[in-house]
């Protein structure tokens, strides 16, 4: 079987092959049971297929975004790392069209309102149809869904509006490119309340060391703290993804987001624990050294 996608045959002999120039020399493969949806949206190529061992899978522009088997590790950590680092009432989600981050956010009884800004409504519709267990919080009365550009929304938002901002973006190409910019984080810092926290999809430490350093050192420069946490996701490149976290100045208590300030109570959780929260900030030596010594390496790169 062959399904053309972005000029390549990414489904070959019953296997979806994730080949991408962003991670050269390696590929991931999942066995396909049935293609459920394949269309060009206004912004990107959307593929949904039923796999043999990982449940339903959503793919954007040839890159796996979510599988039913391992989605909980990414969704729970990206949501609960910032949410348990403070006591939020107002939350902004940028991206996250499958609804998984939203599902985790509304588990927090202290959250009074969630503003959800997703650029591609077709992804939301696909998740509702093909991943109802992930998208089950869509329609929650606490939630305002805005189908539009999250960067533009941040630019127009009022100062000190949100306790937590969660950016669940795809990789820094295509629709998500502007979410990986210093300008976006300057606006994010402005619209956070004092002591508020932003948590963004922070890419893979095995593949994106320089981008991670840029996020922590440059994008995080206007915040009181900027850190990187690691998450295991078997179906992502190298089996790992990160969370870039930063806290705005002016809050009370701990500046770092490394330790939760609240305990999970009566929550259905499959991956996140307070121990996982703290452990996520333990980084391999090569990345720790890179984050601690930026200027010398950058000067050498320019010479």
Distance separating the two termini: 49 Å
User: What is the succession of H and E elements?
Assistant: EEEEEEEHEHEHEHEHEHEEHHH
Give me the CATH superfamily of the largest domain.
Vaccinia Virus protein VP39
**Whole-number total of structural domains:** 2
CATH architecture of the largest domain: 3-Layer(aba) Sandwich
Strand content: 25-35%
Count of helical regions: 9
Determine Rg (CA atoms, Å).
19 Å
Which CATH first-tier class of the largest domain would you pick? Alpha Beta
Helix content: 25-40%
Name the average pLDDT.
91
Number of separate strands: 14
Key features?
303 residues, 7-stranded antiparallel beta sheet, 2 domains, 7-stranded mixed beta sheet, Rossmann fold, alpha/beta
Describe this entry's structure for a reader.
The chain folds into two domains: 2-67, Spermidine synthase, tetramerisation domain (Spermidine Synthase, Chain: A, domain 2); 71-302, Rossmann fold (3-Layer(aba) Sandwich). It has helices at 71-83, 100-105, 121-130, 150-156, 182-191, 209-217, 274-279, 285-292, 294-302, and strands at 2-5, 8-12, 15-19, 27-40, 45-51, 56-60, 63-67, 90-95, 113-118, 143-147, 162-168, 192-201, 225-232, 240-247. With 303 residues, the chain is α/β, with parallel strands linked by helices. β3 and β4 form a beta hairpin. 26% of the residues lie in helices and 31% in strands. Keywords: Polyamine biosynthesis, Transferase. Belongs to the spermidine/spermine synthase family. InterPro entries: PABS, PABS_CS, SAM-dependent_MTases_sf, Spermi_synthase, Spermidine_synt_N, Spermidine_synt_N_sf.
């Amino acid at each position: 079987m062959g399904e053309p996608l972005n000029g390549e045959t990414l489904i070959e002999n019953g296997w979806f092959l994730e080949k991408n120039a962003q991670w050269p020399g390696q590929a991931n493969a999942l066995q396909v049971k049935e293609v459920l949806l394949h269309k060009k949206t206004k912004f990107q190529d959307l593929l949904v297929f039923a796999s043999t061992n990982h449940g339903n899978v959503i793919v954007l522009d040839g890159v796996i975004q979510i599988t039913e088997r391992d989605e909980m590790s990414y969704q729970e950590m990206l949501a609960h790392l910032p949410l348990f680092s403070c006591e939020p009432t107002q939350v902004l989600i940028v991206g996250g069209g499958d609804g998984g981050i939203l599902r985790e956010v509304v588990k927090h009884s202290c959250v009074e309102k969630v503003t959800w800004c997703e650029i591609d409504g077709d992804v939301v519709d696909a998740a509702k149809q093909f991943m109802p267990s992930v998208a089950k919080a869509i329609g929650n009365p606490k939630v305002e869904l805005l189908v539009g550009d999250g960067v533009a929304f941040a630019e127009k938002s009022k100062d000190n509006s949100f306790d937590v901002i969660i950016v669940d973006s795809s990789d820094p190409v295509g629709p998500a490119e502007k979410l990986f910019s210093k300008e976006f984080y300057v606006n994010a810092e402005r619209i956070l309340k004092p002591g508020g926290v932003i948590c963004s999809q922070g890419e893979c430490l095995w593949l994106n060391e320089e981008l991670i350093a840029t996020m922590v050192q440059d994008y995080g420069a206007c915040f009181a703290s900027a850190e990187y946490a690691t998450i295991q996701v078997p179906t992502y490149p190298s089996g790992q993804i990160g969370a870039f976290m930063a806290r705005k100045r002016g809050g009370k208590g701990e500046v770092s987001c490394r330790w939760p300030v609240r305990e999970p109570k009566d929550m259905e959780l499959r991956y996140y624990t307070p121990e996982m929260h703290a452990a996520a900030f333990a980084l391999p030596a090569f990345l720790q050294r890179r984050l601690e010594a930026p200027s010398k390496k950058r000067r050498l790169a320019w010479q």
